What does this fold into?
Amino acid sequence: MKKRTVRTIPQTRTPVQELDPTIRARNFEEVNCGYSESEALRESERCLFCPDPKCIEGCPVSINIPQFIQKIGEKNFRGAYDTITATNLLPAVCGRVCPQENQCEGVCTVGENLEPVAIGRLERFVGDLAIKNHWVNKPYIHPSLFKIGIIGSGPSGMACAADMAKAGCDVTVFEAFHQPGGVLRYGIPDFRLPNTVVDAEVEKLKDLGVKFECNTLAGRLFTIEQMIEELGFHAVFIGTGAGYPSMLNIPGDSLNGVLSANELLTRCNLMKAREFPKVDTPLPLGRHVVVVGAGNTAMDALRVSKRLGAETVTCVYRRSKTECPARAEEVHHAEQEGIEFHWLTNPIEVLDDGNGNVRAIRCIRMDLGEPDDSGRRRPVPIQGSEFELETDEVVYAIGTNANPIIGQTSKLTLNKRGYIETDSNLMTSIAGVFAGGDIVTGAATVIEAMGAGRKAARGMKAYLGIRDIGPIPTDGSLFGIALSEHNFTRVRIAE
Amino acid sequence: MNSIAPGRSGPQPFEILRREDYSDVTYMLEVHHPMMARAAKPGQFVIVMSHANGERIPLTIADFNREKGTITLVIQAVGKSTMEMQQTLTAGSMLHGLAGPMGIPTHLSDARKVICVGGGLGVAPVYPQARAMKQKGAYVIGVLGFRNKDLVFWEDKFRAICDELLICTDDGSAGIKGMVTDGIKQAIEKHKDIEEVIAIGPPVMMKASANATRVAKIKTMVSLNPIMVDGTGMCGGCRVKVGEKVKFACVDGPDFDGHEVDFDDLMVRLRRYKEEERVATERWSETCRMSEPGLGELSKINEMAFPNRN
Ligand SMILES: Cc1cc2nc3c(=O)[nH]c(=O)nc-3n(C[C@H](O)[C@H](O)[C@H](O)COP(=O)(O)OP(=O)(O)OC[C@H]3O[C@@H](n4cnc5c(N)ncnc54)[C@H](O)[C@@H]3O)c2cc1C
Ligand SMILES: Cc1cc2nc3c(=O)[nH]c(=O)nc-3n(C[C@H](O)[C@H](O)[C@H](O)COP(=O)(O)OP(=O)(O)OC[C@H]3O[C@@H](n4cnc5c(N)ncnc54)[C@H](O)[C@@H]3O)c2cc1C
Ligand code: SF4
Ligand code: SF4
Ligand code: FES
It folds into this structure.
């Protein structure tokens, strides 16, 4: 193959089809339609196959990106899938929700001169193909006698479960809700990540022999200590996430019509309240909705509110657009759908209509001052710039804290802010008990949570003395013998 | 180990072993869940989903039996979900979801003399606390309030564990004529050495009880019932104001110091979904009227409500 250079590759990023903003803002269909095969092939031609691929460093789980893109180019889609799943269990999910512009794509060499290679879209293309064709990488699993308990079925728990199942362990995932998936299920709405994708990923784990026990509130139904001492688990992983939502602590916080984004999203996504009264869970329906915050959660709350039929939906954020933590694509989509943004605006009071309901929110304009600890310029209020925004529903999406239940019921060492402390192998202060994901790091990303789940699995295997033979090479051969000749690669496990 | 039986996955069915009706609106369900029965402590609650499209509703664990492996729920039919459950659930039915035990168990104090107050539906949840205090050797005075004689339930259960029992009815058809606050006042006058009051019931009743003990400075614990979704500290819907601080009742409670709670705030917040609840209830009673269920029809409704049973 002729060596590609920035000048010979297709100069523009292959656009992806999206639903029309005016139509999609009224339904929950997925916005981004994903690449077709020809689009994926074209985009794959934009990768330079750098000898020193920066993109791999940018990916928290170090997917061999040039290799999988090369396989797409060769139309070896199954091979591309194998390359990705050597490190990333959830390509269909991560391809959709990773903040790629800060990760793999943010450091792609092509991005120095042109738009970077659309790594996420390519990854999603492969992930969707795998779901459609029911590809499962079922390795030969040599059964071990170990019993593993996983608490929480979010991305960290799922990743840890998959690795331990592949190591031959008897794995059970305990989930407090009645359906598995964590934030992927209750938080991220269908128009960004359809529930069918989450279902498919859960099914793949079941295929590996992982058992899911929903309706199980670990810590309270049984404690972590009891899992080890009485229930016979040889090791435990805690991936309970950082769900506990923050409130602003301004006057009017407890008025009816003020709620957390988590509550809005859970009612809408998990409880399907948008079909009320067909389903029993009611939904707060505002005509003029104000969402405070500008992270991914805020974007989801904004776009959900729009889809539920609000006349106006407004985002209020105290910093400027440059500092906003949401993915660029999400902000762009929100703008397209007619959501208004009040950058550099801070709420100071929620106002009462006299009956305990929200009437308006009083805000103050902000200016950017000196950089603070996070390196971002600190917003400072502009005296006398207060104004009122009329609203009947205020949604707080200003971050979350550690969920307290496990801390309340076990002797685990927590840090000052209530997150679980771990060593470098993600083992907690109790031997054999590991933790990872948002409950250790604070709210982060899906791919980081997944990476943590895998890292904890590695620690767990070392702790249990399960020898990790490392990922099976996917470059075609092992000891000089073609992989297909080995009988251990994708042998089906006994039913 | 009902909920962790190997090889099963997805939502677990939880079987109702026994049902009893205490009045037109109050019914009791005894549900099989050995692990929960083992873990449950006084003051805790569960979240129930009766069918796949149902609401997650919080209900106090009114009793538990570790030998039989059951927990007892006493439910008042007040709206769509609780009325529908009253119609459809019988011995042998399965709940779609049952999670818990949730909340911080009641901190059983070393008080030597306590009044346990239950108003209306609060009668059931105060029972395990009264029993636990009795087992700790305290002198237990029960004060139970009902609207009238026909609604009285669990009198015998309370007699068995209380040193004194005062029943109050609005119309005087049983016990004292008056409200639980009258019972509390009587008990406080008779006993000068009461160290604690535990009051559970509708917010107005808990507010009144807390006011009745404020002057005498008797510690008064209440159990709050704000609207909940997850019960795991994730949504913030259950937030309540306690001593100017915001607490999440499902993980920081549900028990709080009654003298610190902002009951007016709680009562306003409980009205949040009133309109939606009305719509749901009306729509539901209409479908019921249309089919005019006789006893035979009940199983049909049951089938409609639980399409994925078995
Ligand atoms: C609305 C929203 C949008 C987001 N968008 C993005 C995005 O676009 N891209 C991105 O990369 N990241 C996004 N994130 C962040 C990302 O979803 C999280 O970082 C990630 O899901 C964390 O995974 P986790 O496994 O640690 O926990 P979670 O996904 O939070 O899962 C924890 C699970 O544990 C369960 N649980 C908790 N306590 C118990 C218990 N005691 N017993 C049993 N089960 C329990 C919970 O019910 C939950 O299901 C978003 C987050 C939110 C809230
Ligand atoms: C910790 C806790 C323990 C509880 N224990 C019991 C119990 O042991 N027995 C019992 O009968 N009820 C109990 N409740 C109240 C019970 O959850 C509600 O009555 C039930 O959810 C109402 O649902 P519905 O659809 O039938 O009525 P709806 O039509 O939804 O509402 C009817 C009335 O109930 C109130 N309500 C609605 N949803 C809730 C909710 N989630 N929590 C509290 N009130 C609500 C509304 O303000 C309204 O006035 C408890 C609530 C909490 C928070
Ligand atoms: S997992 Fe996320 S960061 Fe890694 S390559 Fe895929 S999209 Fe990029
Ligand atoms: S940095 Fe960009 S161009 Fe280079 S290998 Fe990675 S994706 Fe391809
Ligand atoms: S019910 Fe959701 S936080 Fe308490």
Residues 274-291 of chain B form the longest helix (18 residues).
